[in-house]
Amino acid sequence: MRFDEAYSGNVFIGSHPNYEESSVVIYGMPMDWTVSYRPGSRFGPARIREVSIGLEEYSPYLDRELKEIRYFDAGDIPLPFGNAERSLKIIEEYIDQLLADGKSPLGMGGEHLVSWPVIKSVYKRYPNLAVIHMDAHTDLRTDYEGEPLSHATPIRKVAELIGPENVFSFGIRSGMKEEFQWAKENGMYIAKFEVLEPLKEILPRLKGRPVYVTIDIDVLDPAHAPGTGTVDCGGITSKELLASILEISRSEVQVVGADLVEVAPVYDHSEQTANTASKLIREMLLGWF
Questions:
Q1: Using CA atoms in the order 118, 119, 124, 126, what is the torsion angle rounded to 10 degrees?
Q2: Could you tell me which residues are annotated as the binding site?
Q3: Residues annotated in the binding site for Mn(2+), as ranges?
Q4: 3-state class of 192 per DSSP?
Q5: 9 pLDDT band (50/70/90 cuts)?
Q6: pLDDT by residue (tens digit) across 34-87?
Q7: Record-annotated residues binding Mn(2+) (predicted)?
Q8: Are 278 and 168 in contact (CB under 8 A)?
Q9: Could you give all domains of the chain from N- to C-terminal order, each with its CATH number?
Q10: Whole-model pTM over 0.90
Q11: What DSSP character marks residue 22?
C-alpha cells in the first residue's frame, strides 16, 4: 500500500496533505457485495467526503477545530468487485500497515462486514481490546442463507475472536431470537433500543482499555437516516447519537480505531444521511483522537 501521495479525488474537509505528518488516517471501504436487502453502500465514503465541504470546521460541542489535529484522507481502498473474501484480506493488510506506521484508523463503509477485518487487525496490536457497537441489528448470525461472509455476521465473528464479554452493543432493535439468546448465554452485553444512557453505565467499566467503536448509521431512526440499505423503525435520534459520541470523548477509554458504515446515497434523496454521517465523522475526529 502507498500512502505517500494525497488522494486525488474529493477529500474530507480539512484533510492534511501529508500522510507521514498525520496521526489519524481516514479511508473508505467501498464494498457492498454481501448485503441482504438494498445495495449501494459502496458509494457511501465518496458521498460523505463530498458533502463534508458544507461542514463548519469548528465543533461547538467540543470547542475544537479540525485544524487542531492532523488527519490524512487516503481515499478508498481499491477492492475487487464481488469478491468478498479477497476484499476482506485487502482491508486487513491495509490496516496492518496503518497500525505499523503508528496511525489511528477511521474508516467509512461500505457494508458492515468491512468492520470485521479492521477489528481483527486492531486486535493483533491490542489484545485487551473492547468493542463498542452501535446498530439497529445484532449482526450475530453465523451465516446468512448459508453464507458466512455477510453483513449480518461481523459482530458474531468479532465476539468469537475477542470474547463475547468484550463486545458491547447499543441501540439494538432487530435480530433473530437465536442471536439474542446466544448473546445472553455467552455473556455479551446488548442494550436494546437505547444508546446514551446504557453507554454511560458501561464506559466506566472500560476505563483505560483500548476500544474500537463501530457505528452502523441505521442505529438512527429512518426519519434521521433514510439513506441506508436496511432501514428499521424505532431508532434513536441524531441528537442522541451525537451525545453518545461526546460521552465517549469525555470518558477515560482509549479509542484506538473506529468506523461508520452502511451509508447508501442512492436512497438519500435529501442527502440528509450523508450530511449527518459527515458531521458524526467530524465529532469522532475531534473527540476521540
A1: 130
A2: 112, 135, 137, 139, 216, 218
A3: 112, 135, 137, 139, 216, 218
A4: strand
A5: confident
A6: 999 999 999 999 999 999 999 999 999 999 999 999 999 999 999 999 999 999
A7: 112, 135, 137, 139, 216, 218
A8: no
A9: 24-288 (3.40.800.10)
A10: yes
A11: -
